[in-house]
Design goal:
heterodimer, A: about 120 residues, mainly beta, 4-stranded antiparallel beta sheet, about 50% strand, globular, B: about 120 residues, 12 strands, about 0% helix
Chain lengths: ~120, ~120
């Protein structure tokens, strides 16, 4: 079974620029998550999709972050404009149905550096 | 508020010795409990979970975890450590009964196993 695919693996931009990340979850997984992992901390949920609908975006800084999953499969996360504090690894994860007893499967992440 | 504590930033152990990585949580109700491992520049990999039943849960790569309800702890253990076990370990909880399947992570514990 193919895992969660993310691209790019690394991205370096200057503050105030925009950036986008892409994620393709495991085939058949209805639920997709985006996490932000700042160095020295555990992952923090940004947004959760169930198929193509948002079910939790309470931690997403909506003034600068946006995400979509238009066809219920792959997803993009965008930051515009980027701030220095956005430097982090952005992890995408998926699970079969999004139930709380199901493990999540993670991609290798995109490491974002803001100059 | 949901919180997960991993009291040790680092755990160092000699190869062949037993290891323990500690985790305590403060979550309403009886949450589901998870351990994940992260190798450098990789995403998180699921190790094991506690749903219900036996307090000792067995997982991947010879790891096990002991659930203690009275102490609200879920410590990760392995009888004999390997150098290849060196990695960053995260404890996570998911509130039982939630339809969102959201994970709350600890800060992580860096495990180093020396030869």
């Amino acid at each position: 079974e193919a895992g969660v695919a993310q691209s790019p693996r690394y991205k370096i931009i200057e503050k105030r620029q925009s950036v986008a990340f892409w994620c393709n979850p495991i085939s058949g997984h209805a639920t997709l998550y985006w996490y932000q992992q700042i160095l020295g901390q555990g992952p923090k949920l940004l947004i959760q999709f169930q198929n193509n609908g948002v079910v939790d975006d309470s931690q997403l800084p909506k003034d600068r972050f946006s995400a979509e999953r238009l066809k219920g499969v792959d997803s993009t996360l965008k930051i515009q404009p980027a701030k220095l504090e956005d430097s982090a690894v952005y992890l995408c994860a998926s699970s079969l149905e999004g139930l709380s007893n199901q493990p999540q499967h993670f991609g290798d992440g995109t490491r974002l550096s803001i100059l | 508020a949901q919180s997960v504590a991993q009291p040790e930033d680092q755990v160092n152990v000699a190869e062949g010795n037993p290891l323990t990585v500690k985790c305590t949580y403060s979550v309403s109700g009886n949450p589901y409990l998870f351990w994940y491992v992260q190798y450098p520049n990789r995403g998180l990999q699921f190790l094991l979970k506690y749903i219900t039943g036996d307090n000792l849960v067995k997982g991947s790569y010879g790891f096990e975890a002991e659930f203690n309800k009275s102490q609200t702890s879920f410590h990760l253990k392995k009888p004999s450590a390997l150098v290849s076990d060196s990695a960053l370990y995260f404890c996570a909880v998911s509130p039982r009964g939630s339809t969102l399947g959201r994970l709350y992570f600890g800060r992580g514990t860096q495990l180093t196993v020396w030869p």
